[in-house]
Specification:
116 residues, single chain
Amino acid sequence: MAAVRAFGATLNEAVQVRGALFCLELREEARRGRNMLALAVIGAAFLHIALLLAAVLVAAAFWDTHRLASVALVALLYTACGAAALARLRVEASASPAPFESSRAELARDLADLRR
């Protein structure tokens, strides 16, 4: 009977520790996600304004001589920048660690220990 109680106590402690680890990782992921979203929105807003002003500046500078070429060049530049940003986003998304990686690793170790 004492062995069953000891096993129950060990199991209870393991569940509490794993639950605390899961909660900690959940909070960290949520905070990280909010920070990344806020930075992305702020950066996108300022870059959008800057790009619009740059396009107006280029169009105004070449209005009398090469207006269509200047607008086409700016559009091509924006397309290239957008494609590069999306490619970088794809790399970042594939390289980021899986959510709750530590919790899953701990649970896998626990299962391996229980099977022994």
